[in-house]
Amino acid sequence: MPTNILMPALSPTMEEGILSKWFVKEGDTVESGDLLAEIETDKATMEFESIYEGNVTQLLFAEGAAGIKVNTPIAVIETGDSVVEESSVPAGVEESKPEEKPAETSEPVKQAKPVHVNKSSSGRIFISPLAKRLAKENGIALENLKGSGHKGRIVKRDIEAYLLEQKEQPTPSAPTQVQGITPEAFSFDQVTKMYQDREYEVVELEGMRRTIATRLTQSKQTIPHYYLRREVELDSLLKLRSKVNSFLAKKDKKVSINDFIISAVAKALELVPQANTVWAAGNVLQLKSCDVAVAVSIDDGLITPVIKDANKKSLTEISNEMKDLAERARQRKLQPTEYIGGTITVSNLGMFGIENFDAIINPPHASILAVGTGKRKPVVGPSDEIEIKTLMSLTLSVDHRIIDGALGAQLLGTIVDLLENPVSVLLNLD
User: Fold this and answer.
1) Are residues 230 and 417 in contact, defined by beta-carbon separation less than 8 angstroms?
2) Helix, strand, or coil here: 81?
3) Which of 23, 180, 284, 429 is the Cys-Cys partner for 35 at CB 3.0 to 4.6 Å?
4) What is the C-alpha to C-alpha distance for residues 351 and 368, in angstroms, rounded to an integer?
C-alpha cells in the first residue's frame, strides 16, 4: 500500500519548512535509515531519514519548495504493507497532529481498525518507538492498549485514542495556555497608503525572521518584563584573562570576556537556584542543571544555542563549545537538542560599541542578560580619590510572574560579584 511521507516537525517550534534537496528520485528503492531529503527550518538545516522499506512512487514537491506546513505529505512510498503507519520523525523530536487531507495517491489509503495487542512467543509487545515513549510519558500500561498498526502493532494513534477515552473534564483551577497575539495596529493596506507617493519595495518576512517577529511580539505582550541594571568593574577580569590567554597561546587557544560571562551566569544560577526556572503555562519548572543559552547572530536572524551544565565546565571547555556551536549555527547545522532548553539567555552587543540595552525574554526562559561594552570611566575610590576603571553595563530582563524583584536583584548581584572576583569563575563550586 502507498504510505505518505509527511513534512516532519524537526523542532517543537517548527510550523513549516523548505524542501532544500532530495536524496532520492521517483522509482528508487529505499530501506529504513536511508536519507530521503534535506529540510530547512526556521533555525537549522537537517537531513531526513526514512523508516520504511519500499519504492518511491511520488515526490510531491520540487527542490526549493518553501512554506510546506508540518505534516503535509511530501512523498509517497509503496511499502507493500496492508496498512499505513506513522510517518518518519527523527528520534527525540515530537510528532505533530497530521493534516486532515492526505495527498492523492494511486490507491486509496485504508484506515486500520484496532485489534488486540499482538505479542511474540516470548511475550514481547509490538509497539513503535514513538508510541512506546508516549505510553511511558502518560503512565499507560501496554497491556491496556489495542494495536491498529500492521499485525496488531501499537502506534501513535492508539495512544491518542486511549488518552481520549480516559480524558476527564478539566477543573476550573486547571492552568490555561496564554491566548494569542493581539492584531496589528495597522493593516498592510493602511500602511502602504501612508507611503503611496514614495518609492518602496515590499520585503516579505520568511522563515526565521517571521518566527522571531511572532515569538518576540508574543513575549512582550504576554510576559510582564522588569529590568535591573548594574555596572561591573572589569579591570581584574581583564588582567586575569590576559594571563590565561598568555598561557593558552602555547596551545593556540584563547578565551573571551563572553566566556567568563557565560561561566559566571551559570555559577550564579547554581548559587541562586530559585532563579533557575522557566514558565510552563501556569506552572513553574525549577531546573536542577545550569544551562545557559547564548544569542548568536546569523543571516536573517539569530539563534540561541545552549551550553549544557555550564557551571561544571572550565573556561576552555565553554570557549571551545561556544565556538563550535556558533560556527554550526551560522551554517544552520545545529540539532534541535543544541538550541532548545536553558533558563536564561546571554545577549552581548558590546562588540558593536553598545553601552547598554534592554533585551526581550526568550520564552519560556525567566530572564535574559543584556551585556554592553566596557568603557573607561572615572570612579570615586574608597578614600574619595578619583580612579579610572573599566565599567561594563549589565541589564537583566526578568519575568515578574516567576522571579520577584529581590530574587532578580540577588541573581544579578551574584553575577556581578563573580565577574569582579574572576578567580572564582575558574573554580567549580561545590
Assistant:
1) no
2) coil
3) 23
4) 18
Cross-strand bridge partners of residue 16? 69
Sequence-ordered strand ranges (E) for 15-69: 16-22, 29-30, 35-40, 45-49, 54-59, 65-69
The span from the CA of 424 to the CA of 427, in Å, is 5
Q: How many CA atoms lie within 13 A of 47 on its CB side?
A: 8
Q: What does the mean pLDDT of the chain come to?
A: 83
Q: Which three cell numbers stand for residue 123?
A: 511475550
Q: What is the rounded CA–CA span in Å between residue 139 and residue 215? A: 32
Beta-strand pair 35-40/16-22: antiparallel
**Residue 126 and residue 365: Cα distance in Å, rounded?**
39
Task: Name the DSSP class of 14.
Answer: -
Residue 298 has, within 13 A of its CA and on its CB side, a CA count of: 24
- Candidate list 116, 150, 225, 400, residue with the active-site label: 400
pLDDT band for 167, please (50, 70, 90 cuts).
low
3-class secondary-structure state, position 246: helix
Distance of alpha carbon 223 from alpha carbon 244, whole angstroms: 40
Q: Running DSSP on this structure, what letter comes out for residue 103? A: P
Q: What is the SS3 assignment for 419?
A: helix
Other Cβ atoms within 10 Å of 12 Cβ, number:
10
Residue 252, helix vs strand vs coil: coil
CATH topology for the 224-426 domain: Chloramphenicol Acetyltransferase (3.30.559)
Please tell me the distance from the alpha carbon of residue 19 to that of residue 66, in angstroms, as a whole number: 6
The single residue listed with the C-alpha cell 509503496 is: 78
Q: Where are the domains of the chain?
A: 1-109, 112-167, 224-426
C-alpha cell recorded at residue 38: 534535506
Higher pLDDT, 349 or 427: 349
400: annotated active-site residue: yes
Fold of 112-167: Dihydrolipoamide Transferase (4.10.320)
1-109: CATH, from 2.40.40.10, 2.40.50.100, 2.60.40.2890, 3.50.50.60 = 2.40.50.100
pLDDT in tens, 319-340: 999 999 999 999 888 888 899 9
The phi, psi pair for 358, rounded to 5°, reads -105, 120
Residues in the chain: 430
